[in-house]
């Protein structure tokens, strides 16, 4: 992938090929020395000092050549990533030109800029592939793989949406559809840039250790914020779980970073969670979303794709309930710009819920289709959680400004089925009996 990439410089390609040949020579030398030692019938400790030194030198030479090759591969990947990020402003202008060309029905101009956009899209996919090859943790590896898949799925849709708008310039739906794909493109590229910086930071910390510990791997836990050795050690199950949990908490961008702080503010203002349906449901959705996020890293209570889809259904149902409660709260807000903003934001919830439900119910056949569906469900969940976060923040602002009391807002009593804790309702999100209590039709009936 490194040498075949059209975006790899001639110098880097030559260096990689030379270093690959060097690794091959060192490996052959190591095999020759190993076979010689094995033919003697003696263990390494029983052999003379000369033979032992020769084996150690062969091992050291192999490690050194592999280290040099890996360093070159990392340099090549980061060089392409840097070129991609330097051209990000140019690509943003291309996307804007595509949008304007579609609005003005300039099909020739649209096709011209679409070709430039597709070239950058291909380059960005190459960067994701190279970053995946140099990733030092499973977390980074999965993130790079998902980023590449997202680009393959959603990148071409931007050009398709632009052509659709060009053919129907008066269609409001076509315009909104293009805007959605433009926002998604910006989000994907921002995620890739952030991922590049994270990988570079981890590799930079490892490079400092490699000068002294190249052949002396030390035991310990390896997380995304800790320095890694050139020769990694195998983690036991407990260590791996702890590392994954740590990385998962650091990487959740939307799941809890905004909803939880707002909920804490409400608690500080003496709004009791048990009497505040908005806070309780927002936290419940946050926990569900985090379980789904952990699934993409092989962790958490969700074990199968069916568990994930079931959790997504409950997530959508909970969003519908939160929507109804927020609409009830909006009646308490006096007519103002804040109320108008709240209504505009909360009215996005049904659309996002419908998109998530449609994605979950979409039938699939085969592993590839299922994998694509999982990716789409995660993306729709993230989009819905973004909307919920904005709604919760706006509710808090309205409550603080107009001194609104939430304690009587919940349409449920203490003995209602929803009176359970969030952990009880989310804990069965994998399709167990506990989840059904949180997603039954009887809950909607009381609304």
Automatic annotation (TrEMBL):
Pfam family, one: Vinculin
GO-annotated biological processes: cell adhesion; Rho protein signal transduction
Domain of life from the UniProt record: Eukaryota
Molecular-function annotations in GO: actin filament binding
Renumbered residue ranges of the record's region Disordered: 410-447
UniProt biased composition (Gly residues): 426-447
Entry protein name: Alpha-catulin
Gene source species: Allacma fusca
Classification lineage: Eukaryota, Metazoa, Ecdysozoa, Arthropoda, Hexapoda
């Amino acid at each position: 992938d490194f040498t075949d990439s059209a975006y790899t410089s001639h110098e880097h390609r030559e260096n990689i090929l030379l270093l690959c040949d060097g690794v091959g020579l060192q490996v052959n030398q190591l095999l020759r020395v190993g076979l010689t030692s094995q033919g003697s019938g003696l263990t390494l400790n029983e052999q003379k000092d000369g033979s032992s030194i020769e084996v150690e030198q062969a091992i050291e030479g192999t490690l050194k050549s592999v280290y040099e090759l890996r360093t070159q591969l990392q340099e090549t990947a980061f060089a392409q990533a840097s070129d991609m990020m330097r051209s990000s402003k140019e690509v943003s202008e291309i996307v804007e030109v595509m949008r304007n060309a579609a609005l003005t029905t300039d099909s020739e101009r649209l096709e011209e800029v679409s070709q430039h956009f597709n070239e950058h899209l291909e380059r960005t996919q190459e960067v994701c592939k190279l970053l995946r090859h140099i990733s030092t943790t499973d977390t980074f590896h999965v993130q790079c793989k998902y980023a590449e898949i997202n680009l393959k799925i959603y990148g071409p849709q931007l050009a398709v949406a632009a052509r659709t708008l060009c053919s129907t310039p008066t269609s409001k739906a076509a315009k909104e559809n293009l805007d959605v794909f433009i926002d998604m493109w910006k989000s994907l590229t921002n995620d890739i840039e952030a991922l590049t910086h994270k990988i570079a930071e981890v590799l930079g910390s490892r490079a400092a250790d490699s000068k002294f510990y190249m052949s002396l791997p030390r035991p310990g836990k390896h997380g995304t914020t800790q320095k890694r050795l050139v020769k990694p050690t195998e983690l036991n199950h407990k260590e791996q779980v702890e590392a994954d949990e740590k990385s998962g908490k650091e990487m959740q961008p939307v799941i809890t970073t905004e909803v939880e702080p707002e909920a804490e503010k409400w608690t500080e203002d003496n709004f009791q969670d048990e009497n505040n349906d908005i806070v309780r449901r927002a936290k419940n959705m946050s926990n569900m979303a985090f379980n789904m996020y952990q699934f993409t890293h092989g962790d958490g209570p969700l074990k199968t794709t069916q568990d994930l889809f079931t959790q997504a259904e409950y997530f959508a149902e909970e969003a519908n309930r939160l929507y109804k409660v927020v609409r009830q709260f909006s009646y308490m807000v006096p007519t103002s710009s804040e109320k108008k903003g709240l209504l505009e934001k909360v009215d996005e919830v049904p659309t996002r819920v419908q998109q998530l439900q449609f994605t979950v119910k979409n039938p699939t056949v085969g592993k590839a289709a299922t994998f694509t569906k999982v990716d789409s469900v995660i993306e729709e969940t993230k989009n819905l959680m973004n909307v919920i976060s904005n709604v919760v923040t706006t509710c808090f602002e309205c409550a603080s400004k107009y001194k609104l009391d939430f304690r009587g807002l919940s349409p449920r009593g203490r003995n209602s089925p929803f009176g359970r804790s969030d952990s009880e309702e989310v804990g069965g999100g994998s399709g167990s009996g506990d989840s059904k209590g949180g997603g039954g039709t009887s809950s909607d009936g009381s609304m």
